[in-house]
Specification:
AcTrfase_PglD-like; Trans_hexapeptide_repeat; single chain; 12% helix; UDP N-Acetylglucosamine Acyltransferase, domain 1; 6-stranded parallel β-sheet; mainly beta; 24 strands
Length: 214
């Protein structure tokens, strides 16, 4: 499988390493707006994102390697590809239940665990060492940072960002586009467009509603 990666920052470096570790996967191009023209290094094309259509073919898939949830969604809407053109990238060291479901464009990083009947949306980041327990439901464009722990039956809605080493107890809902701070322990529901920190986590501010893209 030939893959085009959109974005070439730090998050993209990890995804490039992941793809390189997979058999029968090849990086065709890395596209980023920091490039003004097309060049080639070590067999990989580097060019602006506006060159995407030039390199797309029937056997080429795309992954968006941008850590910011909002920007990732903006790119999806801007380039307007069919859902099946996006590849799901799972590192070989990740443990993924056969009964789980993972959406197109999502990346599952080294040593992550996704347990029975968990559902992961599209264009999510399941970062290094994150644990998603049974029956979790993770919405599109979310980011679970390194070493987060989501216990059973947790609902994380679209665009939410769970900080590094945060823990969410069973049955909790984290609303759309909310942020849970690093190291927090979430024992109460978190409303949409909120920032919550601490142990136990408490809401410290509301997020600008403009983050949501219709």
């Amino acid at each position: 499988m030939r893959i085009i990666i959109l974005g070439n920052g730090g998050h993209s470096k990890v995804i490039q390493d992941m793809i390189s570790s997979l058999k029968n996967h090849e990086i065709l191009a890395v596209l980023d707006e920091k490039y003004t023209d097309e060049k080639q290094e070590n067999g990989i094309i580097y060019a602006p994102i506006s060159y995407l259509q030039k390199f797309l073919d029937d056997d080429v898939k795309v992954v968006i390697a941008v850590g910011d949830n909002k920007i990732r969604k903006q790119i999806v809407y801007t380039i307007n590809l069919k859902n099946e053109k996006y590849v799901t990238v799972v590192h070989p060291s990740a443990i993924v239940s056969s009964s789980s479901k993972i959406g197109n464009g999502t990346v599952v990083m080294p040593n992550a665990i996704i347990n029975a009947d968990a559902t992961i949306g599209e264009h999510c980041i399941i970062n290094t060492g994150a644990i998603i327990e049974h029956d979790n439901n993770i919405g599109h464009y979310t980011h679970l940072s390194p070493n987060t722990t989501l216990t059973g039956n947790v609902l994380v809605e679209e665009g939410a960002h769970i900080g590094a080493s945060a823990t969410i107890i069973p049955g909790i809902k984290v609303g759309n586009w909310s942020i849970v701070g690093a190291g927090s322990t979430v024992i109460h529901h978190i409303p949409s467009y909120s920032t919550a920190v601490g142990s136990p986590a408490r809401i410290i501010k509301n997020i600008d509603l403009g983050i949501e893209i219709s």
